């Protein structure tokens, strides 16, 4: 026993100086802010909703995770239990974070979980709702308060920076199903109904090896629930499960390329909890296994690429559209006529942000904008297979569905029909998939 203790002490004596000579190469900081609406507010996501929210199932939040490499380069990842964030709000928040912290736009990732049980966020899918002035005021006030909170959140996370070690791994959760399978009348295992069941996990551990933060993702719509109580859907339940299992750690969820993927089955609170628990279990299995260390340095690329829209309708075509039976087409017509009346020309393209964060040679994180279909994740995994890769969607500007070339050709909701809700005439022109893939590869170099 004495010999055992002695060797233990000697072991520590040998290990400690080595550890001190090899300080962690990262610093990481986290912060959390409650963004639960203070009163009734219209909820985003479903056009069929007919009244504002009624209470809260669980609070929703925004979290920040800031990394700093050995050279002092910082990247901030901000995740939100929200349906979306538009270009205006996103640019405003990033500009203010830059002024207050010096972290420039290209080093800030804003990701939403796309919960369909969170408030309408001003600027996102503007043509879905027909709100009264009072309801619109509540939405506008919420966005204003949200922006202030996000800026403070980033500042708070920077104050929390402390030595850290990063590690990456990937698990699996199987509740996401391609929602176009039934619409296209193909079996769930058809090549026309792909899914990405991967659960990327980035663990952040402090000097004592305690879990400081865990960032994880999944490619599936947050549409289990369509209740009127505010909640974060399955990601909200996953976050709670993980933070309960790891007291003191901050859990952050990043939505992936799940534009054409839904949880299956849906519509019960018990199912949202079950999927959240399944995701948390997948994350825990990764945390408990052998994760790959992630080294720096950080390098970041950010571009806005122009995705071309089909030709804009003529004034005469828009006036005809005013008579359309579909009220959303009527709203689009009114919106386009207002644009023309204001002296603006109708857009011929949309500036789509593409962002890539590289953690040395150990991890590439592609942060895609809009609602990207799962084909993007599957193709990037294939074509950048030489290194660990994480493909997030729903980042920085949720301005439209982003169909792959296949989905664009097949048409349907994600292929172009949904563009009306975003206030865009559409669909996109062919070629967008290659443009986005090329941009990711260019930025990942
Ligand atoms: Zn969606």
General description of the model:
Helix content is 34%, strand content 24%. It starts with a helix and ends with a helix. It is built from eleven helices and 17 strands. The strands form four sheets. Strands 1, 2, 3, 4, 5, 7, 8, 9 and 11 form a nine-stranded mixed β-sheet that branches. A four-stranded mixed β-sheet has the order 12-13-14-16, covered by helices on one side. It has one domain (26-298, 353-426). The chain is α+β, with helices and mostly antiparallel strands and 445 residues long. The radius of gyration is 23 Å and the shape is globular. Strand 8, helix 5 and strand 9 form a beta-alpha-beta unit. The chain has helices spanning 2-21, 87-101, 133-159, 180-184, 233-245, 269-288, 315-321, 327-341, 375-383, 405-410, 432-444, and strands at residues 26-34, 61-68, 74-80, 108-112, 162-172, 176-178, 198-206, 211-218, 250-255, 261-263, 292-294, 298-308, 349-359, 363-368, 371-372, 389-392, 401-402. Zinc ion binds next to loops.
């Amino acid at each position: 026993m004495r010999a055992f203790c002695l060797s233990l002490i000697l072991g520590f004596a040998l290990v400690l100086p080595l550890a001190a000579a090899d300080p962690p190469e990262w610093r990481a900081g986290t912060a959390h802010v409650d963004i639960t609406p203070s009163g009734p507010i219209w909820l985003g996501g479903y056009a069929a909703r007919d009244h504002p929210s009624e209470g809260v199932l669980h609070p929703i939040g925004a979290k920040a995770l800031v990394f700093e490499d050995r050279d002092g380069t910082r990247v901030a990842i901000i995740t939100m239990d929200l349906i979306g964030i538009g270009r205006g709000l996103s640019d405003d928040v990033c500009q203010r974070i830059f002024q207050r912290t010096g972290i420039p736009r290209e080093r800030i990732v804003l990701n939403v979980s796309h919960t369909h049980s969170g408030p309408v966020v001003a600027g996102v899918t503007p043509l879905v709702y027909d709100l009264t002035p009072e309801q619109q005021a509540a939405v506008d006030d919420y966005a204003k308060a949200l922006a202030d909170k996000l800026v403070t959140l980033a500042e708070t996370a920077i104050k929390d920076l402390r030595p850290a070690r990063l590690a990456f791994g990937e698990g699996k959760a199987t509740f996401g199903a391609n929602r176009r399978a039934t619409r296209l009348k193909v079996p769930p295992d058809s090549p026309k109904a792909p899914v990405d069941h991967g659960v990327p996990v980035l663990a952040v551990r402090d000097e004592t090896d305690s879990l400081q933060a865990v960032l994880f993702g999944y490619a599936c719509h947050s549409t289990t629930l369509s209740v009127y109580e505010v909640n974060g859907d399955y990601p909200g339940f996953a976050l709670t499960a993980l933070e309960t299992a790891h007291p003191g750690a901050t859990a952050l969820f990043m939505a992936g390329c799940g534009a054409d993927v839904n949880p299956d089955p849906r519509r019960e609170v018990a199912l949202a909890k079950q999927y959240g628990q399944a995701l948390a279990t997948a994350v825990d299995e990764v945390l408990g296994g052998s994760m790959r260390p992630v080294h720096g340095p950080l390098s970041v690329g950010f571009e806005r690429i122009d995705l071309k829209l089909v030709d804009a309708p003529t004034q005469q075509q828009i006036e005809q559209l005013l008579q359309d039976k579909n009220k959303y087409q009527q709203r689009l017509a009114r919106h386009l006529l207002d644009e023309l009346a204001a002296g603006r020309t109708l857009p011929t393209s949309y500036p789509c942000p593409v962002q890539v964060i590289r953690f040395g040679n150990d991890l590439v994180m592609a942060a895609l904008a809009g609602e990207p279909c799962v084909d993007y994740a599957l193709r990037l995994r294939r074509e950048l297979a030489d290194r660990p890769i994480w493909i997030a969607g729903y980042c920085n500007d949720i301005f439209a569905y982003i169909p792959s070339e296949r989905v664009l050709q097949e048409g349907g909701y994600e292929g172009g029909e949904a563009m009306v809700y975003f206030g865009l005439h559409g669909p996109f022109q062919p070629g967008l998939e290659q443009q986005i893939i090329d941009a990711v590869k260019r930025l990942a170099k």
